[in-house]
Amino acid sequence: MTDYAIRWALAAGANPDELARTWETGQLAEVPIGRTWDVVRIADRVAPTVAGRLIVLGVPQGPLLVCQPRAAYEWLIPVGEAAQWAALPQWGRSCVAVAAGTFLCPPPTDSGRQEYHRGRRWLVPPAERFPQVTESDALYEVLAAAVTRDRADEYASRTGSQAMPRTREAPPL
C-alpha cells in the first residue's frame, strides 16, 4: 500500500484498523462512497470503450476499478454528482450512479494493475500523479455515445440491418 492510498481511503471515511488489517492481508477494504467522491458503475460491455475514448480525448481519469462480480468498471466522480446522474434518462443496465450509503470495496493499491483480488483490480489506482476523480460531464458524454453505439449494434444484430459506421474520430465535447 502506498501512503497516498491509505490517506485517500481514510479521507473517504474508511475505518483505520479495518483498512490496515484488510489491505495488509491482501483483502478488500470497505471505503464509504459519498464523503469525498461518488461512483459511476458502467457495464463492462461498454466500459472499455468509454475508458479508451476518455484517453483519446485527453480526459484525465481518476481512480478506476474493474469489478468482475458486478460486471462493471467503477469510476470515481465528484461528490454529490451521482444524484445528477440518477436523474438523467434511463441507461438500462449500462450505468448505475452510487452515492452515500454504500461502500466501494477496493483491493490494496500495491497489488499491481493486472492482479485481481476477489474479482477486483485497479486500472487507475489512487495516486498523487492522477486526479482524485474523473470529470463527470466528460464521462457522461462519452458514455452516452458508447451506449448509443452499443444499442445500434444490438439492434443491427437482431434485425440483420447495417450497423452504424465506426469512426476513429473523437466526438466533440
Task: Please tell me about this protein's structure.
This protein has 173 residues and is of the alpha+beta class. It has one domain. It has five helices and seven strands, in the order ααββαββαβββα. The protein has a five-stranded antiparallel beta sheet with strand order 5-2-4-3-7. It is elongated. The N and C termini lie far apart (36 Å).
| Average pLDDT | 85
Q: Name the structural class.
A: alpha+beta
Relative helix content = 25-40%
Low-confidence spans: pLDDT under 50, at least 5 residues? 167-173
Could you tell me the radius of gyration in angstroms?
17 Å
Number of beta-strand segments: 7
- In N-to-C order, the SSE pattern is HHEEHEEHEEEH
Main sheet properties? 5 strands, antiparallel
Q: Please tell me what the overall shape is.
A: elongated
Distance between the termini: 36 Å
Number of helices: 5
- Describe the strand arrangement of the main beta sheet, using strand numbers: 5-2-4-3-7
**Overall tally of domains:** 1
Strand content: 15-25%
